[in-house]
Amino acid sequence: MTTPASHAQGLGDESSIWFKLTPLLRGDPENPMRILMHMTERYGPVLPVNLANQRIVLISEPEYFKHVLVTKADNYIKYFDGLKPIFGKSMITNDGALWQKIRMPQQPAFHPDMFAEYIPYFLQAIQTKMDLWADLAKTGETFEMVEQTWTLAADMICKALFDRDMPFNPHVVFKCVKTYTDVMNHRDIRLRKQAGEVFEMNDEDAAKSMETWASVPPAVMGADPREMRERTLLKMIEAAVADPTVPEFDTQQAIDELKQYLWAGTETTALTLAWALYETSRRPEAAERIRREGETVYGDRPPTAADYSGLAYTRAVIQETMRLYPPIWGLIRVAVEDDIIGGKEIKAGDRVTLFAYGAHHNPKFWDEPEEFRPERWMAGNAKKQVKYSYIPFGAGKRSCIGGAMSQVENTLALSLLLRRFRPEYVGANPAGISATVTLTPKGGLPFIIRELS
Ligand code: HEM
Question: Which residue, 113, 187, 369, 436, is the most exposed by fewest CB within 10 angstroms?
């Protein structure tokens, strides 16, 4: 059995593709994505790079995204080495028939028909957050927005999908997640420590974080249900464990599925909302438009599923945020067999990185791509987009199971939070970017908050 300490070290070791990409990303401390963009501009949309006996192929053209994710999806399988401690053997890491067997029993929980059932629970979590923000507004203290949105996203998932109040301290778990998802920094920190620098985090802390993380799913499963609801994701997972026709779906599988949801479904949603609050804080007219839209669509009553379609501008702000800051900036696969993409040879074993950020910022596909313009997503404008040039949720059969649901969560949260508060970003302008497994704000997004009268 692997010890927590060796897990923690595994994150930054040679097997992690994110670690391998680190040397490429140094050189532009404010936005390492720009380096990859320059490379693809200079050397083309299919760029093989040899790094320490390993070929990584950086792909940045939408038609090749389609090739890898849709047309020849079976030739490009998942690659999760280095991230096993986070995801275990959950479906996000599997391929083929096993993946299908694990995904099928869970799929109904993400059908759009379920959203109306979830919305009251999303609203409860947002209300809890607003109560906390009212206190933060009184003290005027500076706080970290990603931590705030992470705890909100975790609460929404626990209440809506698991029928549980969070049976863990989300602020503690957030810090654990940060400690061991900062994959590249793991290695950096060790190297810089050797050079005599002092860091707060060490391997022991990382190992402790691992242990805390491993304790979260059993805590969720063991906690009392809030309402004994029959149709929840957790119930579907429990039914799959009890189903003798799917022996692969054992108790460990269930634990790992929960890990996956609490990481893949929480950090991505939280980053999107935090970046959206950052952008709207810098654009008072956008924040005002969101407030007015909420007033018109649902006024003083709680928003419902029927109101969601009316929140067109707020939803467009979320979509535009995911274009500028795709939480999953690169999708990674391993080639099973040799192939040709864009005239370039792909060899079996190559690590193929689909550079979503590059396509989202490419002037070939977007007018003034660096501009934050929610209007691109409104009134038929979205139809003009080149297919596969926007892949925040991936594409094909392995696309995000919770993508549509996350848009409901974030649209409602942004609308309600901005109607009551004026969050003010007080960090460096513009905020720097740090590319770990996800696209995170470098050093966080510090905010203060005022309550609107
Ligand atoms: C803004 C929010 C989100 C973003 C940007 C996002 C992004 C993604 C992406 C890009 C993938 C595909 C990765 C690949 O092909 O390699 C993915 C897969 C996945 N996501 Fe999300 N996600 C979000 C929210 C959620 C939520 C709310 C949940 C569930 C509660 C979720 C659960 C999953 C799962 C389980 C998979 C794996 C699906 C499979 O392999 O069959 N995600 N997500």
Answer: 113
Percentage of the chain with pLDDT > 70?
88
Residues with CB under 6 A from ligand 1: 91-92, 103, 157, 260-261, 264-265, 268-269, 272, 322, 327-328, 331, 392-394, 398-403, 405-406
- Contact between 328 and 438 under an 8 Å Cβ cutoff? The reply is yes
At 129, list the tokens: 């957050």
Site to substitute for ligand 1 among 268, 355, 391, 411, most atoms within 8 A of C-beta? 268
| CA-proximal residue: ligand 1, atom 37 (nearest) | 92
Residue pLDDT, tens place only, 121-140: 999 999 999 999 999 999 99
pLDDT single digits (tens) 230-243:
999 999 999 999 99
pLDDT band for 13, please (50, 70, 90 cuts).
very low
Where residue 101 sits, what CATH number does that domain have?
Answer: 1.10.630.10
Q: Which atom of ligand 1 is nearest to the CA of 326?
A: 5
Strands 344-346 and 351-355: unpaired
Ligand 1 atom nearest to CA at 99: 41
Query: Whole-angstrom Cα distance, residue 200 to residue 192?
Result: 12
Instruction: Give pLDDT, residue 203.
Output: 67
Distance 400 CA to ligand 1 centre (A): 4
Question: 192 alpha carbon to ligand 1 midpoint, in Å?
Answer: 33
Q: Express each pLDDT in 319-374 by its tens digit.
A: 999 999 999 999 999 999 999 999 999 999 999 999 999 999 999 999 999 999 99
Alpha helices in 243-367 (DSSP H): 251-264, 267-281, 284-297, 305-308, 312-324, 356-360
Residue nearest ligand 1's atom 13 by CA? 394
Count of structural domains, the chain: 1
Distance 235 CA to ligand 1 centre (A): 20
Cα 146 to chain centroid distance, Å, stands at 12
Q: Which amino acid would we find at residue 80?
A: F
